[in-house]
Amino acid sequence: MSQYAAGAKQASDNMEKDGYQTGEEVVYATDPEPGNHHVSADRLARKLSARQVQMIAIGGTIGTGLFLGSGKSLATGGPASMLLSYSIVGTTVFCTMLALGEMAAFMPIAGSFCTFAGRFVDDAFGFALTWNYWFNDAVSTASDLTALQLIFEYWNPDFPG
User: Beta partners for 29?
Assistant: First the structure.
């Protein structure tokens, strides 16, 4: 029995002792370094359909900034500059997502890209990235509410705000 299989068996036995149900399939994420045999089990339930994942991706890609900022960008720079800038940013995002997909295929762990940053770079970097991501969400929530008020005011000029 290999070291990784023995570690997975031990983690499964520990889960049964702690009262977890182990009848369902459990994904074991191991540390890529050869000397570290710590095995942690996470219980991911992959029940989203392809259509649900596509809708989540579209909702995350098309933000309020795209709707509110495109008109002014088009009027200021024209269609060629918008196409060029979206191509540059799109290529950067594509390469980033490709790298994230490679990491997720190499080591499927429960967590966001912040977990991968903590695993592959440094724990402190993952911690800082997690807090920066939370702060980004907090600020963008207020920005989305402001954008919503601007849209309501466009359709109804008497809208309070």
Answer: 40
pLDDT band (50, 70, 90) for residue 8: very low
In Å, how far are 7, 23, 109, 124, 130 from 31, measured between CA atoms?
11, 24, 11, 17, 21
pLDDT single digits (tens) 55-110: 887 777 676 667 777 888 888 889 999 899 989 998 998 999 899 889 888 888 88
pLDDT tens readout for residues 35-67: 554 545 566 677 888 888 888 877 776 766 677
- What is the chain written as a DSSP string? --HHHHHHHHHHHHHHHTT---SS--EEEE-SSTT---EEEE-------HHHHHHHHHHHHS-HHHHHHHHHHHHHH-HHHHHHHHHHHHHHHHHHHHHHHHHHHHS--SS-HHHHHHHHT-HHHHHHHHHHHHHHHHHHHHHHHHHHHHHHHHH-TT---
